[in-house]
Amino acid sequence: MSMRNVQVVLGVLFGVAVFLFLDYALPSRETVRITNTYNKLTDLNWSNRIFYASARTGTVENAQGSRDVRFIDTVRPNGKPLVYRNEDTGLIWPPYFKYDSSNLHAVAGDLRSTADNPRWVSVTSYGWRNDLLTIFPNAISITPVAGPGERPTNWPALMILVILGVLLALFWRAWNRFREARISPAVTRAERRLQRMDARADRARDRLGAEAREARGRFRGWVQSWRPPRR
Questions:
Q1: How far, in Å, are 86, 103, 159, 196 from residue 68 at the CA level?
Q2: Is-cis flag, bond preceding 94, omega within 30?
Q3: Among candidates 127, 120, 114, which has minimal Cα distance to 143?
Q4: pLDDT given for residue 180 in this prediction
Q5: What's the whole-number mean pLDDT along residues 62-71?
Q6: 53 contacts: CB under 8 Å, gap ≥ 6
Q7: Closest of 27, 86, 90 to residue 55, by C-alpha
Q8: Half-sphere exposure for 38 (CA within 13 Å, toward CB)
């Protein structure tokens, strides 16, 4: 595999990693109807512990690694369920500085409704929902909306993406300047040095070849000098 292909593969992997990171950490908004709120003893293990709040936020686990987690059951306008967890984030990543999980749970309980008399809300959250790993997005805030068709603009995510885009553009500009000022001249000097080394190696190889041919000629002459003259 050439160096160019290696760079392409590494670039693709880096892009996928950045996309997954942003997809998990950035806030998302979903219009849903709350159907239930409850606490559940949840088992945490090596496969899903990283997707739950850090123990440093004040959460308590028992000796078996189980944690009492608040959950919010919701239903989307299309009838598909979506379950949220409700945990404090504290000052730990991601930096949502959430300390009001108890208050949010009370708000969610007050906004519960039935299919016959629905009350629609917009839930801001981060994270993924995965049945296999038993992970849930973490609810950050809940805001009532007029109906199931209302989709509030996700301004926090847009602002973060704009800031990241500006920072990326500034970094790219600084990197190009650094590359033109330092890296490109160094690469050019290295290439010229390699070309000179190749040229010296070619001259040395030619000289050795000539000396070898000359030595073979002298050796043949010496061997022929020992042969008896032909009659």
A1: 11, 16, 34, 70
A2: yes
A3: 120
A4: 81
A5: 82
A6: 59, 87, 88, 89, 90, 92, 138
A7: 90
A8: 8
Q: Cα(5)–Cα(18) distance, rounded to whole angstroms?
A: 20
β-bridge partners, 31: 122
Confidence bin at 228 (pLDDT 50/70/90) = low
Inform me whether the pLDDT recorded for 1 exceeds 60: no
Unique residue bearing structure tokens 């973490």 = 138
- For CA atoms 56, 58, 61, 62, give the dihedral sign: positive
pLDDT tens, position by position, 80-92: 999 999 999 877 7
Both structure tokens of 71: 């959950």
How many Cβ atoms are within 10 Å of 110's Cβ, its own excluded? 11
- Report whether 38 contacts 71 (CB < 8 A): yes
Whether the pTM exceeds 0.85: the reply is no
> What distance lies between CA 204 and its chain's CA centroid?
51
- 189 has a pLDDT exceeding 90: no
Query: By three-state DSSP, how is residue 134 classified?
Result: coil
Q: How far apart are CA 140 and CA 97, in angstroms?
A: 10
What sign does the CA torsion over 217, 219, 225, 230 have? negative
The Cα–Cα gap between 140 and 96 comes to 8
Q: What is the DSSP string of 144-201?
A: E-SSTT-----HHHHHHHHHHHHHHHHHHHHHHHHIIIIIHHHHHHHHHHHHHHHHHH
